[in-house]
Specification:
This protein has about 70 residues and is mainly α. About 45% of the residues lie in helices and about 0% in strands.
Length: about 70
């Protein structure tokens, strides 16, 4: 005769699905936070494609255009 499997109810102390799911959710949150921090640090460390200039040179208008 085969051995019957033990049914584990969610009120049983051996039931771990809720704890496992909560642990996975927390690990996922932490992984996403770390990924966001890394992406932000990389963005700050990346060289800018726009040259840094304090102020664009302003050109004086030499001629008044009619409207």
């Amino acid at each position: 005769m085969t051995k019957s499997s033990r049914l584990v109810l969610n009120c049983d102390p051996q039931y771990r699905a809720h704890r496992e799911a909560a642990r996975r959710r927390e690990e996922t949150r932490e992984w996403l936070r770390q990924r966001e921090r890394t992406a932000h640090e990389r963005a700050l460390a990346a060289p800018s494609i726009v040259p840094e200039a304090l102020e664009w040179p302003r050109v004086k208008r030499t001629r008044a255009y009619s409207q």
